[in-house]
Specification:
mainly alpha, Growth Hormone, Chain: A, 0% strand, MFS_dom, transmembrane, globular, membrane, MFS
């Protein structure tokens, strides 16, 4: 296998998995229209996908720190797809919650192991991890287009067609697993990373990522409905706003990897959160079609630090890179879904604009936390012989 092939396959596989994170928010307007859900009830669907995922990701991260679980990559990809595929088949709200929760568990199982394998495949390159993160962001971006093309013409009963990306993603995992197995057989792994864990910095980083998550999940859940309100009620206007939010993430992830090659990760992340705070204010308060510009700027600002935060977490916890990946790439990303019922309830009681206003504060809190973080100096932590062996079967 050529040198760059594993990260290409992992990036495409990551896109196939993160389609199902984006699909939950993309399905919300259809649940509202077809099943007459209120904002609060619809946000409960996002909560169901996030809740078990939030709890499960650190568990899967700890598991990958203890033993090799390469089979999690294809299995979790399929599980994520099956849950979303079944979510539209029953009119029962309880069953809908169960199915999206199953998808959330699949997404939770995928990310810690994939983050470890991607770090090995990229040899610690920030740009390589940026490409891996970009794959996930492209999956997010494609989700509303995919969901709309499938569901808008035939209703929620056509959601089984949404399982197709999972089949493709699972197929992408298998060559990478085999390549890592051969690499392990050919010779020893890299030199173990030195230095202890910086738990205090990791906790601050996790809080910063959690505030980012509240902003992103809050916007991704309601930006389609909000854009429709602001721009005349068109379904296309809402889908376009959600697509811009996710497509800007692909640009932001690549830009983050490039900027981290010129400045350190902490500095790049800190400035990106300042940009994000101003951009979210524009989304909430600037009227008219300018909302698309501010959605794009918000997306870039939120995603510039995305892959950088994953490697920062692994560098702060070099002895537990699976746990670090499970938290920074998983738990703190999913935790934003826990705040969506509060946003939905406030929107039902007041208005969507009022409910989205507190999101302006979240990037400011992330910025304040990043002002207290050091840039780790240990090169390529987590790329130890033991880590490489665990990533291989």
């Amino acid at each position: 296998m050529r040198r760059n092939t594993p990260i290409v396959l992992l990036s495409v596989g990551h896109a196939c998995v993160d389609v199902y994170q984006g699909a939950v928010a993309a399905l919300v307007p259809f649940f509202v229209a077809e099943r007459a859900y209120t904002y609060a009830v619809a946000s409960g669907v996002v909560l169901a996908a996030s809740l078990l995922s939030s709890v499960a990701q650190p568990v899967f991260g700890a598991l990958t720190d203890r033993r090799a679980v390469p089979w999690l990559l294809p299995v979790s990809t399929l599980l994520g797809g099956v849950g979303i595929a079944l979510s539209g088949l029953s009119g029962s709200y309880a069953l809908t919650l169960v199915f999206v929760a199953i998808s959330g568990i699949g997404v939770a199982a995928y990310h810690p192991e994939s983050a470890r394998v991607a770090r090995i495949a990229t040899r610690g390159s920030h740009r390589g991890m940026g490409w891996f993160a970009t794959g996930g962001n492209i999956g997010f971006a494609l989700a509303p287009l995919l969901v709309t093309s499938v569901v808008a013409t035939g209703g929620l009963r056509r959601t089984p067609l949404l399982a197709l990306p999972a089949l493709a993603g699972a197929a992408m995992c298998l060559p990478v697993v085999r390549a890592l197995q051969r690499k392990r057989a050919d010779g020893p792994g890299t030199t173990p990373a030195k230095g202890g864990d910086d738990t205090a910095s990791f906790v601050k980083l996790s809080l910063a990522v959690a505030f980012r998550s509240i902003t992103l999940v809050g916007l991704s859940t309601f930006i389609s409905l909000y854009a429709r309100q602001r721009l005349g009620g068109s379904t296309a206007a809402g889908t376009a706003a959600l697509s811009v939010l996710y497509l800007g993430g692909a640009v932001g992830s690549l830009l983050g990897g490039f900027l981290a090659g010129r400045w350190d990760r902490v500095t790049v992340s800190r400035w990106s959160y300042l940009l994000t705070a101003a951009s979210v204010a524009g989304v909430v308060w600037v009227p008219g079609p300018a909302i698309y510009l501010f959605v794009a700027l918000t997306s870039v600002g939120l995603y510039v630090p995305f892959s950088l935060q994953v490697t920062l977490g692994q560098d702060y916890l070099p002895s537990r890179v699976g746990t670090a990946g499970g938290i920074t790439l998983g738990l703190t990303v999913s935790i934003g879904g826990l705040a969506t019922p509060a946003i939905g309830g406030l929107a039902d009681a007041t208005s969507l604009q009022t409910a989205l206003t507190p999101l302006v504060l979240m990037p400011v809190l992330s910025w304040l936390l990043f002002r207290t973080l050091p840039e780790p100096r240990c090169p390529m932590p987590g790329l130890t012989a033991r880590s490489e062996n665990r990533a291989a079967p």
